[in-house]
Amino acid sequence: xxxxxxxxxxxxxxxxxxxPAGPPGGGPRARLAAAGARLRGGDLGVAPVVAGLVVIWTxxxxxxxxxxxxxxxxxxxxxxVPVGVIALGVVFMLxxxxxxxxxxxxxxxxxxxTAVLFVDRGMPAWVAILAAVALGAAVGWCYAxxxxxxxxxSFVISLAGLLGFLGLQLWILGPNGSINLPFDSWPVxxxxxxxVPPWLAYALVAAGAAALYWTGRLRAAERxxxxxxxxxxxxxxxxxxxxxxxxxxxxxxxNRDRGVGWMFVLFLGLVLAAHYALSRTKYGKSLYxxxxxxxxxxxxGIDVQRIYTSAFVLCTSLAALGGVLAASRLAAANQSxxxxxxxxxxxxxxxxxxxxxxxxxxxxxxxxxGIVVIQSISNGLTLLNLDSxxxxxxxxxxxxxxxxxxxxxxxxxxxxxxx
Length: 419
Description:
Elements: H1 3-11, H2 28-40, H3 47-63, H4 70-95, H5 103-120, H6 125-150, H7 154-173, E1 178-180, H8 186-192, H9 198-225, H10 233-254, H11 262-280, H12 282-292, H13 294-299, H14 304-330, E2 332-334, H15 342-352, H16 365-383, H17 388-415
Antiparallel strand pairs: 1-2
């Protein structure tokens, strides 16, 4: 080849690169295909929990037709709240790869403090409740200092707290061992007798569906501006309509009895707030980063100690709030408050709902789904007049299955390069 030919070839203008394609469509088919790919890659999400809940409800309804009655479902949702709030705090701990075994004792201590300040000392109920929750937050802060400064494992710290705070609870309650809350006080009324008016319940459902649509639309617009895949308009509408229809039907069915309890609305509000914090804020991303790889998070500039401290404080604060709600639900605080299976049920609910014991995976809705599963088992077996031994065995089997699914999903994600 001649020199002239070589120079001519070199001087030829390069072929124009194809214009970058816009973000792929986000229609229903594309979303279903993406969901299937995630499931095959080990990202199971809430699918196993929802499937398990359907199976449990179907079996319980076949064995006892009262199970899915509106009256029983109203009771079931209210019974979910105290331990569900505690489980929501456990989710924050598990996300950073830690665990708190003392949440039950902290909830019992908070119940005792509330009862003593409100009944024995005559303080306003809201002051007693704030003091109990503040005490829980202080406990979490102390836990975090011991963990961050001394390096004592959270398992050991919380195990010591389990024993110590149980003893403190017994000491606070005194020789009587029980304090009854006035039935006409607003905490007891809120937990037992306060229900959302039907018109307001439907309005909240409509507002929730509208909020889902508009937040989805804003997020889709942000992703399109960044030339990223975005959810299509039709999918956003279908998702909002499905939420409106599903929740509307649920509210209608519950309103055939007493309706939706305000205490459950409080729990749902806490779950939604936690979900927003975990999925839409820098703080939430930092939690997942610390739980996924502490050293990588530290090198990325995340204040790891601050994240650990916040997780401890949130966990113990929500445990204290759960204890206050439990005392209000029972209209009493006694020596058994926070004992028994409260600890295990709170941790099991977070894990069964989809939060990984290995850290870095899960979400706020894990607490809601997990506690509904556990409480459904307990409620159904109670309706069948079976003793607690069966409940423990069935709950243990479900917990083992959840952990096994999590471990299998981790291996699948690792094999697909997503771990």
